[in-house]
Amino acid sequence: MSEPPSSTSWISLLASVGMAVGPPLVYADQAYSIVKKKDATGFSRDVCAILLIANITRCFFWLGSRFETALLVQSIFMILAQLALLYICILYRPRTSPESLGIKTRPLNFWHWSNYVQYIEFLAGLILCQAILFLILGHSDTFISILGFLALGLESTLPIPQLISNYKQRSLYGFRMSTLLGWFGGDTYKTVYFFLQGSPLQFKVCAVFQLSIDVAILAQRIAYGTPPPPTVLPEEDDLEQALALENEAEGGESHGQERQ
């Protein structure tokens, strides 16, 4: 007869389940907040880019390294969660966003596209390129190791766009405290998890780096608070009134020129 599972094995199972489903759930409240306000101001869409690219790459890393299955499941759930969050961010993008204003601020307007389909096409191309490279170089331990550092290294930069956005706005307006606490708590949890589970070196190094950025954002929260930044446009009624006054002023100028 097989022995009943010990309390240690149950704890390990619960830890693995928490690692698989916890990080994707962090973004549920952020998505709800954006939908409720119908405004994605304050949340950096680059967060979605980093998580999507990193977790797609991590799936290929798993094919070569076969680390814990819970981490693979986490990546799949995270990809689905970020695809949904990205759609919401595009649907409720700020009226001051570069694509809304028709301004190009990046080469090929990367990740500032106006159509959700363009994001999907880019991700599909990324998957195809990585699949081809894996078929050619997947037998190489060096390639798999580099793939792991790329995936985990990119994911560790996740809080940096938000850190920069907060610094530019001098505010954490629109960035949910629940998301921040989820980042800090989740990264603390996974750092401990990686060390206790003996995960590959890539996971440990990148988790420590990411946790340090979380601490910096917590410091920003204390220093800046959450006042609305000057880039946030006024309410719809105020905006219409401002446009009416502007049109009235332009009409007055044109009449004055006609009289002259």
Task: List the SSEs and their pairings.
Layout: H1 7-25, H2 28-37, H3 46-65, H4 69-91, H5 98-101, H6 116-137, H7 141-156, H8 159-169, H9 177-197, H10 201-224, H11 236-259
Protein name: PQ-loop repeat-containing protein 1
Subcellular location: Membrane
Transmembrane segments: 6-27, 47-65, 71-92, 113-137, 143-164
First-to-last CA distance? 104 Å
Average pLDDT figure: 81
Helix content: over 70%
* E-strand count: 0
Radius of gyration: 23 Å
**For the report, how would you describe the main beta sheet?**
none
Q: How are helices and strands ordered from N to C?
A: HHHHHHHHHHH
- What's the tally of helices? 11
- Name the poorly predicted regions: 233-243
In terms of DSSP E residues, the strand content is under 5%
- Overall spatial form: globular
- Summing up helix and strand content along with how strands pair, one would put the structural category as mainly alpha
General description of the model:
The structure is a single chain. This protein is mainly α and 260 residues long. It contains eleven helices and no strands. Helix 3 (46-65) packs antiparallel against helix 7 (141-156), helix 8 (159-169) packs parallel to helix 10 and helix 9 runs antiparallel to helix 10 (201-224). The longest helix has 24 residues, at 201-224. The relative contact order is 0.12. Mean pLDDT is 81; it is low at 233-243.
